[in-house]
Amino acid sequence: MARVDDLPADQKAVIQLLLKQGKTYDELAALLRLDGAGVRDRALDALDSLGPDDTGDLESERQDDISDFLLGQQTASQRAATREFLETSAAGRAWARVVAAELRPIGGDALPDIPAGGREVDEAFDALEARKVARQERAKSSRLGGLLVLIGVGVAIAVGGVLLIGGGDDESDDTPTTTQAASTGPTGTPSVDAQINLTAAVQGSKALGVAQVLSQDGQRALAVTAQDLQPSSRYVVWLYNSPSDAQFLGFAPPVGDDGRLSGLAPVPAEATKFRQLVITKEKVDRPSKPGTIVLRGQLDLGGN
């Protein structure tokens, strides 16, 4: 997997012209005195280099379609077909999210949003609803408080992940409950409110990730995926303004040899006051403040 700055000069130039100037393959071919197929080949090779080495069961033709989608080179019907595919393909979404994160500094708002899979979002919100019910039951039996633990239900997020495990002395008990959902779980159409691209905070690190703020029936959740992390380390997700102004969201399970992390956490009501999302590497089991920041991204949830 490469970074944009590592691409060959001709591939990097093609990507910049396509995203920054909104050129089509044919327009760029005329400008560079090349054929359209040659321009597309350079663009597809570039995005292939930017994507993860392990593409799972994603077929090369589908990968090319996703590349055209990210670069704005599809018709309306083609875009609709690609979005439909991404909604049903975890491998496709994982590849698209990694590549989009790499392209974001160049493409900015020109890049399309990557749709969330219907099943993964439904399962995520079912898990959040189960957590809320469990919290209410605990409150009835004990007013002494205590630590909240996120329900241990497997949730498919991008490449397939698990829930973040709540804990730590600073965790807030103010999980958003603005809408009372039916006992059968949320039924509204989920949406992606925001995407946060996470970049390495340590010089020389290849780690990167992406987080999406998902909303459904008045509730919000934060789905986090990352890769190229150090195996076996303990990672924690925080809302962050400064070392003394941060809110614990949850632990991630130990990262395996593949260096990947996936998790889901509810978005608390006070999240709007924070300006960054960070992932830290911790040496203690119950951190009261962030440790070494390994990934960080700008967060804008509409606060003042």
Could you give a short description of this structure?
The chain is α+β, with helices and mostly antiparallel strands and about 300 residues long.
In CATH, the topology of the largest domain is named Immunoglobulin-like
Helix content: 25-40%
Whole-angstrom Rg:
20 Å
Report, as a whole number of angstroms, the end-to-end distance: 38 Å
Arithmetic mean pLDDT: 77
Low-confidence region ranges: 140-163, 168-187
What portion of the residues fall into strands of 2 or more residues?
Answer: 15-25%
Shape: globular
> Order of strands side by side in the largest beta sheet?
5-4-7-8-1-2-3-6
Tally the helices: what do you get? 7
Helix vs. strand class? alpha+beta
Description:
- By secondary structure, this protein is α+β, with helices and mostly antiparallel strands.
- It folds into two domains: 4-110, no CATH class; 118-298, Immunoglobulin-like, CATH 2.60.40.
- The chain has seven helices and eight strands.
- The protein has helices spanning 9-20, 25-32, 36-50, 60-70, 76-88, 90-107, 118-141; strands at 191-200, 208-216, 219-227, 234-242, 245-252, 261-266, 276-282, 292-298.
- It has an eight-stranded antiparallel beta sheet.
- The two termini are 38 Å apart.
- Residues 140-163 and 168-187 have low confidence and may be disordered.
- Residues 169-190 are annotated as: Disordered.
- Residues 175-190 have a biased composition (Polar residues).
- This is Anti-sigma factor.
- Keywords: Membrane, Transmembrane, Transmembrane helix.
- The chain crosses the membrane at residues 144-166.
